[in-house]
Amino acid sequence: MSSRDARNPGQPTDSGDSFDGAGPDEHRRRILVVGGVAGGMSFAARARRLDRHVRITVLDRGDYVSFSNCGLPYYVDGEIEDSYHLAPRTPETFAQQDIDVRLRHDVVALDPDARTVTARVTDESGATREETFEYDDVVLSPGGDAIIPPIDGLQAGFDAGRVRTLRTVDDALALRGHVDAGARTAVVIGGGYIGVEAAEVLARAGLDVALVQRSEHVLPPLEPEMARPVTEELERLGIAVHTGAEATAYRHDREAPALVLEHGTAPGDGTELPADVVVVSAGIEPATGPFEAAGIVCQDGALITDPHGRTNVPGVWAVGDAVASDDAVTGERRVVALAGPANRAGRAVADAMLGVDARPIPSALGTAVVRAGELTAAMTGANRKTLSRASIPAHTVHLHPTPQAGYIPGVEPIHLVVHFGNDGRLLGAQAVGEVGADKRIDVLATALRAGLGADDLVDLDLAYAPHYGSAKDPVNLAGMLGQDVIDGSLRLWYAEDTESVLAEALMVDVRGSEEFAEDRLRGSVNIPIEELLDRLDELRDRADGGPVRLLCSTGVKSAAAHRILAEAGFDSASLSGGLVTLYAALGPEARCLLA
Fold first, then answer.
1. Is 374-486 in CATH node 3.40.50.620?
2. Residues 266-314: pLDDT tens digits?
3. What is this structure's pTM?
4. What residue spans define the domains of the chain?
5. Which parts of 302-422 are beta strand (E)?
């Protein structure tokens, strides 16, 4: 059986029709693509390269069939000067490849028995009509619709043009227009990737910006301790970050428009944020209504496919942001709204449909990167929340190595958190830093895809020179730390347990006395690591048979101190990531723990 015919039990087959790719136009295999951009156009381009005879028609509801979603924010502040670069490929350029692109064609119905789709077509005057298209195969790439929170008065803001999403070229053009027209204040609703980027570019454009996020920190996929530096950087840019807050009303006032907030800790407080411009970036929901109504199986609105992109309806395939993907680490079925996975899926579906020895669409890792001022935040694989939800036990390590040789002037540490399974297998990683975060996460994403573990990370042969890294790269160090935790050489305790640790154990700070005098946890005692061996009897008396918990600035000295105490018979553990991680994890709450 060829890979084209391979199926999962219970999943439907492809069309089963036979085409010889020859003959007059009416006998050519008809392939419809519903939706362009990453998934749909990747499929169309690959399908044309594989078969020059099939008829490929793309129906897209927008004015641009192929554009750079990721570049949209950077047009708003002028970093990208010419809007042409956002959408350089037009229906005319695709026509040169014999791909028929129809814009402003919003597919509103699919009839699997008749093998037709119906589109609502809007002409340049705004008039609409319906048109029906026949297909032999159809690839659904409808993407998603922006989630618009139920905020009183928000629709009036949309109608007036003061409120926008940031998902289309028209959105970017409109926001750039507000900036050029002298808008002074802006509020961004939603602190995900697009929300953080939108807040940054509006601040760079000179506006007073506030960012509102319902959850407790920006960039929710990040661990809290990794999100803290991002928040601080946004605040350094002059952005007022409101987390744990929800917008409840938009006051559309020509002279003083404002967004009204309600904080979780103070319901009804009525904080008002001036808002000449509002950007809504509260996530997306799959645009799959017509297809679910046609009997295509969905889960939470997302299309379900087999590993080759087939839906449960013969001849209907699906790719992109509207498709649920099985998470590569947890197995959890979820939507991954990223261009990279959509591009790869489009290519894979073309291979499966047109008879190439196709590989399955790879499960998504969710690898992503975002710029926030001078910082880069990047991630791949699972985080603590998704691992817990999937009941996958894990060891988590924090480290703060330099991404370049430590003697390079001005070098700043990179913050890394890495999750390993009990068997040492890599499960996920996150990095935040000024330099090198993207490189390390790309290496770790590759290792994750390959199924590597802590031992393998130690052995990776990575390029180094003073300006690019050290002989022990942060990735190697993460593997070494993971090894020590997994084999029991190192025992860790974590920042979120600080209150209980202070109550139950003797806290020993192994930094130098000068560092200890500057800031220290209440109830902790200072025994510099250089003095530890000579003061074991003193420490034994202080502990009185109880546990000893160690800390330092970054976890390096306290890890070494743990080995000394463990060999001496103490019940000891080292703070993962040291005080750097503790302060980031606890935020303002850490002040209550300082002496």
1. no
2. 444 678 999 999 999 999 999 999 999 999 999 999 999 999 999 999 9
3. 0.91
4. 25-63+103-145+284-353, 154-280, 374-486, 492-593
5. 302-303, 316-318, 324-326, 333-335, 368-372, 375-381, 394-399, 415-421
